[in-house]
Amino acid sequence: MDWLFPAALALTGTMGALMSLWGLWYLISGLACVKKPTDYGIHPPQTRFAVLIAARNEAEVIGPLIDSLLAQDYPAELYDVWVVPNNCTDDTAGAARSRGARVLECTVPVKSKGEVLRFAYDRLRGRQYDAWLVFDADNVVDRRFLAEMNAARLTGVKAAQGYRDSKNPYDTAISGASSIYYWMMDRFHNGGKAGLGVSAMIGGTGFMVSQQLLDQLGGWRTETISEDLELTAQTVLAGAKVAYVPRAVTYDEQPLTWEQSFKQRRRWSSGTLQVARLCLPALEERQAARPRLALFDFEATLLLPAYQLAALAGLLCTALTAALGGRTLPEALVLALAGACGNIAWAALTATIAAGTVITLEGKWDHRLWKGLAAYWLFLLTWLPITAASFWKKTTVWEEIRHTRTMAPQLPK
After folding, report:
1. Of 105, 207, 277, 408, which sits 20 to 30 A from 308 (CA to CA)?
2. Domain holding 350: CATH number?
3. Residues 267, 398: contact at Cβ < 8 Å?
């Protein structure tokens, strides 16, 4: 058994090196956020928008969203707000109509948000819209959102993701941790990708897709439960990119409980695996035919679940390697626990420093956020078993997460 310790040590080192390479690329792309975002300027309102809201049992929260959309600093005749109720047991349709939105009842069976959006697009495409905006029913939208997206489109942008802010960062530890995660995505992921000149990522809400791009893609045709990531993949494969428009701000409700967060992230992980299986072969084929940084970068994004699984395996390998240094069973158990705890402590420290950094850069410091900051490392750590479970058994159905926060965004004091 003399070979076991050096073998475990070699395996741990190899996995660590591969994870470091992946992490190095994300560090490089994240640091590119220092480049000033593109200023799309001020343009006269010309774009005719269709605003789509897929809504399932959202009567309690949809009113403030519609109010914020109907109060846009944009000519009312140039956009329509469409609520698409589906699988509802409440009066979402009535609540939407009472606030002034148009309602398109979903009359076909749907199992995902992507299917709802495809239904709406197929029914409304004859109305000659120039671009399509998508929001979740629990959002509140900054009054300049449509004007900023109009400016982006008129400068040649085919798809764009806005700034995804939080509506309730101070409610609970998990809503705070989730808020920090989205600020991290805004600053380091989408801001970094924009700095590198590659595609940002559509994030499910607060985004625009032009009719020109949809014509190029053959319509709205996502198939997975991560319609946002799949639409990003289709955009990259079409030779276009998702632009980042940070001045187009959406406030999103974050989960209040760990249970809600687990359900949400389980869906994200399963959806990423679906998109990876569907799109990675085509990305690799395009990369082999004509290498492009944008293709490589998006392939790295789709490998995130593999990275998380490798991180979990690396944690176990570190514990095993440490245990093999013990001479007795109690020594082995203590060393294994110490090795695992050491890795977790280092990850917790770096995650907390990163969270503090993004809070500072985004100007979000507030004493009410301390619970989210303290829980952020655990939020990231729990993603490892969630991803492992998704590899074992994927979620294929878009499950409802009930929203309850009928409130204006909570801003820092």
Report:
1. 207
2. 3.90.550.10
3. yes
Q: Which residue has the tokens 């470091």?
A: 20
Q: Look up tokens 């239904």; give the residue.
A: 119
Which region among 16-25, 98-107, 137-146, 175-184 has the lowest average model confidence (pLDDT)? 16-25
Contacts of 164 (CB under 8 A, 6+ apart): 182, 185, 186, 203, 205, 206, 250, 252
Encoding tokens for residue 413?
């004091």
Domain annotation covers residue 1? no
Backbone angles phi, psi at 268, to 5 degrees: -60, -45
Identify the three-state secondary structure at position 248: strand
Query: 314 and 15 in contact (C-beta within 8 Å)?
Result: yes
Q: Which domain holds residue 282?
A: 7-413
Residue 215 to residue 156: CA distance in whole angstroms = 15
Q: What is the pLDDT of residues 83-97, one digit of tens each?
A: 999 988 888 999 999
**Residue 2 placed within a domain:** no
- Residue 332: partners with Cβ closer than 8 Å, 6 or more residues away: 323, 324, 325, 326
Beta bridge partners of 54: 84, 136
Q: Is residue 277 part of a domain?
A: yes
Cβ atoms 240, 213 nearer than 8 A: yes
**Count of structural domains, the chain:** 1
